[in-house]
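Lab notebook, bench 4. We co-purified these components, and the gel suggests they stay together. Before we commit to crystallization screens, I want a quick structural picture of the whole thing.
Request: model the full complex, all chains together.
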Amino acid sequence: MSDYRSLYQEVILDHNKKPRNYGTIEHPQHHAVGHNPLCGDHISVDISLNGDRIENIAFQGESCAICKASASMMTVSVKGKTRTETETLIQEFLAMATGKLSHETCPNIGRLAVFSGISDLPTRVKCAILPWHTLHSAFTSEGTASTEAEADPMHAPIGDA
Amino acid sequence: MSVTRTAQKSKKSPAFEVERIRADFPILSLKVNDKPLVYLDNAASSQMPQTVIDRLTRYQTTQHANINRAVHYLSEVATSEFEEARRKLQAFINASDEREIIFTSGTTDAINLVMHGYGRKMIGPGDEIILTTLEHHSNIVPWQMLAEEKGAKIRIVPINDAGELLIDEYEKLFNSRTKFVGATHVSNALGTINPIKEMIAFAHARGVPVLIDGAQAAPHIKVDVQDLDCDFYAFSGHKLCGPTGIGILYGRAAILESMQPFKGGGDMILSVTFEKTIYNTIPHKFEAGTPPIAAAIGLGAAVDYLSTIGMDAIAAHELNLLQYATEKINSLPGVRIIGTAKHKAAVLSFAVNGVHPHDIGTLLNQDGVAVRTGHHCAQPVMQRFKIPATSRASFAFYNNIREVDALIDGIRTVQKVFT
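Here is the predicted assembly.
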């Protein structure tokens, strides 16, 4: 069993089965939808801030276990963080998942290190990073409403990630 | 029948010698993740036997030059081997004339050739093109491009829950504006074998030409373009134990002669002045530029190899695998087969409750089992079944029962991980 455990660890399976912060926020200040055109998977991320800190975050969508667990653990990790802290974590996660940095050299990565094995599976990297791209996209948008989700520029394709 | 069968049995010929055949494919002895490779992604691309690899090596080692050009020795050898490959392909699909075999880069290229060469000339505003729900994107998108350019309309033959075309509905789609039919012989996503002979006859009775996408059929069932009476038949070399970058468009000679060239360039002309260019005769009119000579010769060797085994024997062995695998998968709780047509080629699309196909693909890969996961470039089929994607095991004649068992064990492991 040890071989696939490297990726499908208990913690990932658990977050897939019981995703945290799953759903939507009623009046989010930031919102984005991310698509993986390769497989048709998509997730949305809603954020509400208190000052500069993420007070509430939620996600939902159709995706594989890797993507869903990554999104679930992402929401847990960034809740209560400032925008700057969040952006730092996004960059660390992307660097780890794409194999540019090892998880030991990412000071903020913590439990997210369970995704470090994904860099050995290039076809699955996109699954793990989709939620993080979507979060980044939500933040960088100036929009405060979320009603025009599908048409808005916050849409985060990751075709060439 | 029974007499023949007994007679054959005594000669020991009916037993399909799959282990001997497997030995012809060096890649099948590969290990993946320390497990024997179980290659069940043949609908995407098949593997190459040593004899084809050797043929490519022999061509590059002793026969290569550009064709149709120089008078030197190598050019003559290469040209004659290239044209010999054309005749092999002609025989493989029983075309009546070697000029009806056009080398393309693959099925997609072949369909685009027909769209540009026939469609742009013959289809106009308000005209209608009939396609089926089962088409691969390669037999949808070129026609959409044409429809947009010309103001033509695309009409779609629906399918039932088993993944079979509704032939009554197909027939109802015809009217005086119907100018073209494009249909797949075998669905790449579901394995359905369509009743194309009847569909072609119906279209012809109304004067409508038919293109058949044979990419998934040519590797698995005996194709006879004269018996089918199709106007165009397209397929790819790399799904047929041949190299990538080569494919075939069969076209009826009379219709090919009436068509516009697709690509302009060298080899497709008889004479060029800046005032006027006279196009070459078929098939050369459609083969601009230096073709993939080695790949064409390799494909010739591939169909020789397949013909030695026999397409009927191949179809029979694959049907055995399909029936065995279908039975086994149906016995797994929580696993559903997508595509249950009465007539199927050896393609098994399936969904596992609560598990995304990508996770299935990754976990099967850990056991050395290669399947395709995704929408299989057939999103309309996925939309029809209201699923984003499936996992697909597709068999070739070199697969064996042991490999089906490895797939089933792998699916059980997936279910165990996700309980």
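The two ends of chain B are 49 Å apart (CA to CA). Worth comparing against the SEC data before the next meeting. Confidence is low (pLDDT under 50) at residues 1-13 of chain B.
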